[in-house]
Design brief:
This protein is an alpha/beta fold. The protein folds into three domains: 147 residues, Periplasmic binding protein-like II (D-Maltodextrin-Binding Protein, domain 2); 97 residues, Periplasmic binding protein-like II (D-Maltodextrin-Binding Protein, domain 2); 146 residues, 2-Layer Sandwich (Alpha-Beta Plaits). It is 45% helix and 21% strand. It contains 16 helices and 17 strands. The strands form three sheets. Strands 1, 5, 6, 7, 8, 9, 10, 11 and 12 form a nine-stranded mixed β-sheet that branches. A five-stranded mixed β-sheet has the order 14-15-13-16-17, sandwiched between helices. Strands 2-3-4 form a three-stranded antiparallel β-sheet. Helix 1 runs antiparallel to helix 11 and helix 13 packs across helix 14. The two termini are 58 Å apart. The N terminus is likely disordered. Its cofactor is Mg(2+).
C-alpha cells in the first residue's frame, strides 16, 4: 500500500507540473571534458575539411526521438545532431527516405556516413562502427488504467505484451526472458490501441515514446504501470571504412554537458511548471491532497463493495440464490431470542419436494437444478416481506415466520402447497411438496423446535405426501 501511494503521488505531481518527468526518467552521460573547444587531432581536422559535409540517415517517424516533417529533421535526436554539427563546425545533410529499413540498406553501400539513432547488432557491425551512447531511457510498460502497478518484468511474463517490430530490444528481451509472451505490432499507436481494447495486457516501449503518446491521447484510459531494469541505450552508427568518423563523434559526445542534455530532453518530454505566486503553489498542493483523498475514498468504496459481496456470498445458496443453511441458523437463533425476551410468537415451516429423486432420474440433474431454482423463486414471491426463506439442505427449504402462531403458520403452508400444486412447471407436468409446521413454545430451544417441524413433515409424507401437518 505504501508503494502504491508513493507511485500515485509521483504521477500526480508530474501531471500538475510540480515534478519534471526527466528528473527521474533520464540517465545523463556525464562528459569527460567540459572545455568549450573540441580537441581534435590534426588528422581529424583535415578529415573534416576534406569531407565538407556529412550525410546522415534518420528514422523518418519515431517521435519524440526524431521525425522528418516536411523536410525538417525534428525531435530529441535532431537537436543533438544540430549541437554536434555546431561543435564540429560541419554541415550534416539528411538523406530522404520513407522507411527505416531503407535507411539501413543504404548503410552497406556507404551512402550514409552516419546513422543518427541506431543500436549495435552483429549484422550492423559488418558495415558500421558505433559511438558511445549519448542518452539512455528506461523501458516501461503501458497498461489499462484499472490494472495494478508492476514491480518488474517478471510480474508480467505470462501476460501478452506488445512491442514494435524492427526494434532490437525486442530480441534482447527474448534472449534474457525466454518465457516472455511478446506480440510484435507495426507501431506504438497500434500497440496502445490494442491495450485500450484489452487485446494486449501491456505495451513495452521507452519512456519518452509513451509519454509523448500520452500527451496526444489515452489520458484516463492508459497509464505507465512500471519501469523495467532494461534501458534503451541509443548510439550513433558511423561507416566503418572511415574510422576517424566514429572517433570524432565520440569526442563530441564526451564533451556534452549535463545542462545541454537536460535542455534538449526537457524541450520534448518534460512537463514544466513555472511558479508565479505562493498562492498558486498552495492551490496545487491542495489539489494533490484532494486527489489523494479522492483516490483513497475510491479505493475504500471498492473494498467495501468487495467485502459486501463476500458477506453476501457467504450466506447465499449458490444454486437458488436464497439464504443458505448458515444464514438460516443465524436467523432462527435471532427469532428465538426475540420470542424468549418479548414473548413473541413465531413459527417455522419445513418444505420437502415429493419424489425429487424421480425427477433427477427421469429428467437429469440439470432439470433437478431447475426444479430447485423454480421452487425457490415461487416461494420467495408468495411469502411476506418479514419472513425468511432459505435452502435447508438438498431438496428441503425452511421458512421462518415472525409473529405467526401455529394456526397462522399452517394457513401459510397450505397456501404455498396449493400454489405449488397448481403451478405449470416448464420441464415436467407436476410438482408437489410436503410441509411440516411447528410454532415456538415456551422454554423450548432451537433443536426441539426443528425436531417438531421435522416430525410433522414425516407425518405429511406418511399420509401420502402433498400435505401440510403440524406439531
Amino acid at each position: 500500500m505504501r508503494c502504491f501511494t508513493q507511485s500515485i503521488l509521483i504521477l500526480i505531481l508530474i501531471s500538475i507540473g510540480l515534478l519534471s518527468l526527466s528528473v527521474f526518467a533520464v540517465e545523463y552521460f556525464r562528459p569527460e571534458n567540459n572545455s568549450e573547444t573540441l580537441q581534435l587531432t590534426v588528422e581529424e581536422q583535415q578529415y573534416l575539411q576534406l569531407k565538407q559535409h556529412i550525410t546522415m540517415c534518420v528514422d523518418p517517424d519515431w517521435m519524440p526521438y526524431e521525425k522528418v516533417d516536411e523536410g525538417r529533421h525534428i525531435g530529441i535526436v535532431a537537436d543533438f545532431m544540430r549541437l554536434f554539427a555546431n561543435k564540429l563546425n560541419i554541415h550534416i545533410e539528411i538523406l530522404p527516405n520513407r522507411h527505416w529499413l531503407e535507411e539501413l540498406t543504404q548503410g552497406k553501400p556507404r551512402q550514409c556516413d552516419i546513422f543518427s539513432l541506431v543500436m549495435p547488432t552483429p549484422e550492423r557491425k559488418q558495415f558500421l562502427d558505433f559511438t558511445q551512447a549519448y542518452f539512455s531511457f528506461p523501458l516501461v510498460v503501458a497498461v489499462n488504467y484499472q490494472e495494478y502497478f508492476i514491480g518488474g518484468i517478471n510480474d508480467v511474463l505470462d501476460k501478452k505484451l506488445g512491442i514494435q517490430k524492427d526494434y532490437d530490444y525486442a530480441e534482447l528481451l527474448r534472449l534474457q526472458y525466454p518465457d516472455i509472451y511478446l506480440e510484435k505490432v507495426e507501431s506504438l499507436d497500434e500497440g496502445l490501441e490494442k491495450v485500450s481494447r484489452n487485446q494486449l495486457y501491456g505495451m513495452i516501449a521507452s519512456l519518452p515514446e509513451v509519454s509523448y503518446a500520452f500527451q496526444e491521447q489515452y489520458i484516463g484510459e492508459l497509464k505507465i504501470a512500471g519501469k523495467l531494469t532494461q534501458k534503451l541505450n541509443l548510439t550513433m552508427g558511423a561507416r566503418n571504412d572511415e574510422p576517424l568518423l566514429v572517433e570524432i563523434f565520440n569526442k563530441a559526445i564526451a564533451q556534452l554537458s549535463e545542462h545541454e542534455q537536460r535542455e534538449i530532453i526537457n524541450d520534448w518530454i518534460s512537463i514544466k511548471y513555472v511558479s508565479e505566486t505562493d498562492y498558486e503553489l498552495l492551490i496545487k498542493v491542495a489539489s494533490v491532497m484532494l486527489l489523494l483523498f479522492v483516490i483513497f475514498m475510491y479505493r475504500y468504496a471498492l473494498i467495501r463493495r468487495h467485502n459486501y459481496r463476500l458477506r453476501h456470498l457467504s450466506v447465499t445458496d449458490k444454486l437458488t440464490n436464497i439464504n443458505n443453511r448458515m444464514k438460516l441458523d443465524q436467523e432462527i437463533g435471532d427469532a428465538l431470542s426475540l420470542a424468549q425476551r418479548y414473548q413473541h410468537h413465531f413459527s417455522i415451516i419445513i418444505i420437502d419436494i415429493d419424489h425429487f429423486k424421480n425427477i433427477n432420474d427421469k429428467y437429469g440433474h440439470l432439470v433437478g437444478d431447475y426444479a430447485l431454482k423454480a421452487l425457490a423463486q415461487l416461494l420467495s414471491n408468495n411469502i411476506r416481506d418479514v419472513d425468511t426463506l432459505g435452502r435447508w439442505g438438498g431438496e428441503e427449504f425452511l421458512i421462518i415466520c415472525p409473529g405467526q402462531t401455529l394456526k397462522g403458520g399452517r394457513l401459510m403452508a397450505e397456501k404455498l402447497r396449493t400454489i405449488i400444486d397448481q403451478y405449470p412447471f416448464e420441464y415436467f407436468a407436476h410438482l408437489s411438496c410436503s410441509f411440516g409446521v411447528a410454532a415456538y413454545a415456551k422454554d423450548q430451544n432451537v433443536d426441539i423446535l426443528l425436531t417438531r417441524a421435522d416430525n410433522a413433515l414425516y407425518r405429511a409424507k406418511d399420509l401420502g405426501r402433498n400435505k401440510v401437518c403440524t406439531n
